[in-house]
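ARCHIVE CARD
Drawer: 12
Card no.: 0347
Subject: one protein chain, sequence and derived structure
Cross-reference: see card 0346
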Amino acid sequence: MTKLQDARFRKTNFTTHDETVFDADMLKLLMAIDEGKPVLQIAKEIKMDPAVFRESFLRLYKLKLIEEVKQKIVYVDELFVARLKETLISLTGPLGGILMEEAAEKMNLQLPRIPKSTVADFVYQVAKEIPGETQQAEFKKLMIQEIKSMD
């Protein structure tokens, strides 16, 4: 069973016929719901008080304005993660592994479990951690080739 923080939700087409009152927090949360993002990521992005987030989320769910997306998350293979780390270390030195871990933490990912759907965003986040524009560009170029070879 998926933990709520890792679950993904989407807006429904359900329309209420009663006089449902939306407060600003509910609207803010409803606008942020994106089936491509887990609940924890949405909570971090909208920077809402956790108690308010929970209350607003539950109200939207009870009103059937959001629903859980039942999808199996496909992760990149560990070989890809190893190549990414090797590339990073070759460009930045021994701190490359740490840069990769920092990027994963910022995106709330656990290495080596990187969803295929977010791998390009992860590579971009890692590149932002690399000091030096030349190394950043080279890293992106090499990793784009790796991503293309995955499919």
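Annotation on reverse: Helices lie at 24-32, 39-46, 50-62, 78-92, 96-106, 119-129, 133-150. The radius of gyration is 19 Å.
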